[in-house]
């Protein structure tokens, strides 16, 4: 029985290690892809337009983030009303 519990514990440890490794690899892949995207963007956009374009993209991303946060808050409030009483 002791060996079986050790085996189960070892399996859980391996799962945790695999999960962490997978996350690290995924994160590294996202960083590499972001680097490639930045290189492509800087090659494609002329310098004189880049400041305006970056400003526009930033404001769009900021607005999208704010809308996502608002949606999350509404979903959470709805969930609390429905299940929390």
Helix content: over 70%
By helix and strand content, what is the structural category? mainly alpha
What is the assembly state of the chains in this entry? Answer: single chain
Determine Rg (CA atoms, Å). 23 Å
Distance between the termini: 45 Å
Biggest pleated-sheet summary: none
Can you tell me the number of structural domains? 2
Contiguous low-pLDDT stretches (5 residues minimum) are none
How many helices? The count is 2
The overall pLDDT average reads: 81
User: How many strands appear in the DSSP assignment?
Assistant: 0
Q: Which series of helices and strands comes N to C? A: HH
Into which percentage range does the β-strand content fall? under 5%
- Tell the overall outline: flat
Give an overview of the whole structure.
This protein is an all-alpha fold. It folds into two domains: 1-44; 50-85. It is built from two helices and no strands. It has helices spanning 2-44, 47-84. The longest helix is centred in the N-terminal third of the chain and has 43 residues, at 2-44. The mean pLDDT is 81.
